[in-house]
Inverse folding.
């Protein structure tokens, strides 16, 4: 009998060993699962922390959109930002700007010659009628350009430039012909600011602006304050200042910008100062009340005109009077703008 028991015991031992082995494997699997769970939780915490950091960084990110009608000074403002931040123009860029300046002068003079003819203005000198047939080479026609610019007929046409389309940089370049005409001429920073490169799109492309509005912190809206007596190049009828007001109204009342600060840049103050001496703003804006020769009265009227376009009068409208070709003016104004944007952005962060 005892032999049978011993035999049975020997038969049961492998089963017990199997149970112990299975239990050990189960414990190992549980440990592995717990370890993986801890690792997954650790990685999840790291991802959550990273996402939180990114959200804070995005909230602090200041994304500015620069808008405005054609010829309002947007490109000049961007060039000023580059100059103010110490980014030099390389040799290729300088040579490109030189060619642009030559092109600005030649095209500007052709516009003046054509305008003189259409306005029925006579030549001061019959010789200048021949000079008016300007080919494309710049250096070869310096004398012709100088003679044309000095002609009383061309000067009279220039004085009536509100009646046709002429780049505002033309006078600056023609006044500096002696320097620009030198064989070794390299554009100065001021020359670059006045250089005008044609930009594509403008009026026909404005509906596409709204594709750029995601995540905007602030909008800088530029207006040419001196264009109250000029019309659009596109249709020759619409007043340029009225066009700017219409665009501004579309922007300022858009529901996408409920929490976006909008800063109005009433640009080209230098040209406005000159214009109010000779052109009465009441001719185009009969609702103006004040002294049409007083800069402060005209500027106050412009601010009020744009401010009235807002449906939400409780939201502040920040504004600055600027001269985009004046580096120190833009430097000062942009420092003020940065303070405004940062303060408004901080308010939004505190509310989130």
């Amino acid at each position: 009998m005892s032999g049978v028991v011993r035999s049975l015991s020997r038969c049961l031992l492998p089963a017990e060993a199997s149970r112990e082995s299975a239990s050990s494997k189960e414990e190992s699997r549980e440990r592995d699962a717990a370890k993986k769970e801890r690792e997954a939780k650790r990685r999840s915490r790291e991802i959550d922390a990273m996402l939180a950091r990114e959200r804070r960084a995005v909230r602090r990110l200041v994304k500015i959109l620069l808008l405005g009608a054609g010829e309002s000074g947007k490109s000049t403002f961007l060039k000023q930002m580059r100059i103010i931040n110490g980014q030099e123009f390389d040799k290729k860029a300088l040579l490109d700007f030189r060619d642009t300046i030559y092109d600005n002068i030649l095209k500007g003079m052709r516009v003046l010659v054509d305008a003189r003819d259409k306005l029925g203005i006579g030549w001061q000198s019959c010789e200048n009628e021949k000079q008016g047939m300007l080919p494309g080479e710049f250096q070869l026609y310096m004398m012709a350009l100088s003679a044309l610019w000095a002609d009383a007929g061309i000067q009279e046409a220039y004085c009536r430039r509100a009646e046709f389309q002429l780049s505002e940089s033309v006078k600056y370049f023609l006044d500096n012909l002696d320097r620009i005409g030198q064989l070794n001429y390299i554009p100065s920073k001021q020359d670059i600011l006045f250089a005008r490169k044609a930009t594509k799109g403008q009026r026909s492309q404005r509906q596409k602006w709204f594709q750029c509005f995601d995540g905007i912190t602030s909008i800088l809206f530029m207006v040419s304050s001196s264009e109250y007596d000029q019309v659009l190049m596109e249709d020759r009828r619409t007043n340029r200042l009225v066009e700017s007001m219409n665009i501004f109204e579309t922007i300022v009342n858009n529901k996408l910008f409920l929490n976006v600060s909008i800063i109005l840049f009433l640009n080209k103050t230098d040209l406005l100062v000159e214009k109010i001496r000779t052109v009465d703003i009441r001719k185009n804006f009969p609702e103006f009340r004040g002294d049409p020769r007083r800069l402060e009265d005209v500027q106050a009227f412009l601010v009020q005109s744009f401010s009235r376009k807002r449906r939400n009068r409780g939201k502040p409208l920040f504004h600055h009077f600027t001269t985009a070709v004046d580096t120190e003016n833009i430097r000062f104004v942009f420092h003020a703008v940065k303070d405004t944007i940062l303060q408004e952005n901080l308010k939004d962060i505190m509310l989130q």
The chain has a mean pLDDT of 83. Residues 2-60 form the longest helix (59 residues).
